[in-house]
Amino acid sequence: MPALPSAPSRLALPDGRAAFGVYQGIVPDLDWRLALTPMQRLTRCLRHKRWQYAALAHDDFLIAMAVVDVGWNGTAFSYLFDRRQGKVLAAASANGLPGYAAKVENRAFGDARFERFGQRFVFERAGDALRLRVASRGLSLEAEIDLSAMPPVLAVVAPANYLAHSTHKSGGLPARGEARCAAGRYDLSAATASLDYSNGLLARETSWRWASAHGPGIGFNLQQGYMGSEENAVWLDGRLWRVGAADFDYQPDAPLAPWRIRSADGLVDLVFTPEGARREDKNLIVAASRYVQPVGRFDGALIDPDSGARHPVRALAGVAEDHVSRW
């Protein structure tokens, strides 16, 4: 399979068309304005959604953190899931005004922050490191993700359910630091980090299914929903390749039952066994979301499209997600 083309320099071409495609690398200019009509520019704040998400996976626990700016509202969350006990031991979340409480930079794996009522969720880029900080009553996090030897970054610019969306994904990244909560201290030196930066113009009603897991030298990102199959990819031994449309065979009313996740081209065949989940349902009158993110292990196989070699996946820690938003 040929290598993915290099990422373009910007999201929109000089003639105003979006630079649709699946790429390897980082798009440095994430300004959508050139791709918008005058009327769309007037209403951009209602459609422009940006978020940065990180997961820190360990044999014994998983920590996730996100800052989200949906244009007219902002939110942030973080949680610590203990895999030995199968439950969330600490969590923090908050909502606030965009621009004031939530700020997400137009830069993949760059700065993002949410501050409100004494709670702080911060992504801070410092050279080849991305620093994560959470300060809340129930959870404290001080972490640093090393980007200096980052595997190939997946960059996607694709049609979405309003206009277009872009996303950058990376994984298999070393981390250090610690998290603290009432249950104790959690050392991150053996954790593997993965990152998701997304920036697009989306419809008010958006839904997706998602699966992501990463370890040293191996990882995958699979999605079924508003971006179709465009962001489905596998990382293996420093290589990145696309895979086909993903089928999520699971029970929406029983998300802790096993999930079967396969790609249409046969390159991915996985069973996800949830160990527990973070759930959050919100109804803010003008906005609402139904969200469940099980944490657990993936087992199965990834097939090399060039050689046909079968690479086993054994007890790879990660997450799946079922998410519906009105935003």
Question: Could you characterize the architecture of this molecule?
Answer:
It comes from Chromobacterium phragmitis. This is DUF2804 domain-containing protein. InterPro entries: DUF2804. The chain is an all-beta fold and 327 residues long. It has one domain (21-25, 37-326): AttH-like domain (AttH-like fold, Beta Barrel), CATH 2.40.370. It is 3% helix and 60% strand. It contains two helices and 23 strands. It has helices spanning 38-42, 44-47, and strands spanning 21-24, 48-57, 61-69, 74-82, 87-96, 102-104, 112-116, 119-126, 129-135, 139-146, 154-159, 164-181, 184-187, 192-201, 205-215, 218-225, 233-236, 239-242, 246-249, 259-263, 268-283, 288-303, 310-326. The strands form two sheets. Strands 1, 2, 3, 4, 5, 6, 7, 8, 9, 10, 11, 12, 13 and 14 form a 14-stranded antiparallel beta sheet that branches. It has a nine-stranded antiparallel beta sheet with strand order 18-17-16-15-23-22-21-20-19, with no helix packed on it. A hairpin with a 4-residue loop joins strand 20 and strand 21. The model has no long low-confidence stretch (mean pLDDT 91).
